[in-house]
Amino acid sequence: YIQFAPIVERLGFHQDGTLLTSPEQQDANIKLAPFTVDAGKWGDFLCAIFDEWLKEDVGNYYIQLFDSTLANWVGEQPGVCTLARTCGHAGVMEFNGDVYACDHFVFPEYKLGNIHTQTLTEMMYSQHQLKFGADKYEKLPTQCKECDYLFACNGECPKNRFLHTANGEPGLNYLCKGYKKFFKHVAPYMDFMKKELLAERPPANVMQWARKDA
């Protein structure tokens, strides 16, 4: 079971001395962290790993992103929140009991409360948190809502949506270029595995099909 998590961070100076920056913060002084993955290379990496996986690893090695992509392809709930239509189910609690909307959003404006004064159920099902989850889709720019791969991507993680579209709308995901390259690359194989699943056959049959197609 393998998970790949792209590192995307922006750095800016805040009065409390912290550097990490939420996607809503837009300032000329905010810069990409030097360890942030290049969006295009992220797509190249996923395509290269997929091609290796396709040779003989389907059904033997479970790569979370590939499994979640296939889940979206067949209309099922993906196993990773970043590719789901809504989010808000991955809250995080700090050492002092403070609870935040998501482990990618540990910023003051996303604090839900404290475990000493509220239950997790109260905080995670609050109107504030439910809106946070729904905003993942509601705040997508038009470019995303018109994209052929919206069903597979769902705008990816809101944490990475700090770019503007060609029309100037905010909310475009920094990794869009890479994901679009990946989805286009895997589309024929996802289509085949979808047909196999619907016919109650193992999607691992894609390996033999890919070899014939090569």
Description of the molecule:
It is a single chain. With 214 residues, this protein is mainly alpha-helical. Helix content is 39%, strand content 8%. The relative contact order is 0.15. Strands 3-4-5 form a three-stranded antiparallel beta sheet. The two termini are 27 Å apart. Helix 1 (39-56) runs parallel beside helix 7.
Map the helices and strands:
Layout: E1 10-11, E2 31-32, H1 39-56, H2 64-73, E3 92-93, E4 98-100, E5 111-114, H3 120-124, H4 127-138, H5 142-145, H6 150-153, E6 163-164, E7 170-172, H7 176-198, H8 206-213
Antiparallel strand pairs: 1-2, 3-4, 4-5, 6-7
Structure in a nutshell:
The chain has 214 residues and is mainly α.
**Proportion of residues in extended strands:** 5-15%
Query: Given the structure, what is the number of helices?
Result: 8
The spatial strand order of the largest sheet comes to: 3-4-5
Radius of gyration based on Cα positions: 19 Å
State the share of residues found in helices, binned by percent. 25-40%
How many strand units?
Answer: 7
> What is the helix/strand order?
EEHHEEEHHHHEEHH
Q: Which whole number gives the mean pLDDT?
A: 93
Q: Which residues sit in consecutive blocks of at least 5 with pLDDT less than 50?
A: none
Instruction: Calculate the terminal CA-CA distance, rounded to whole Å.
Output: 27 Å
Biggest pleated-sheet summary: 3 strands, antiparallel
The dominant shape is globular
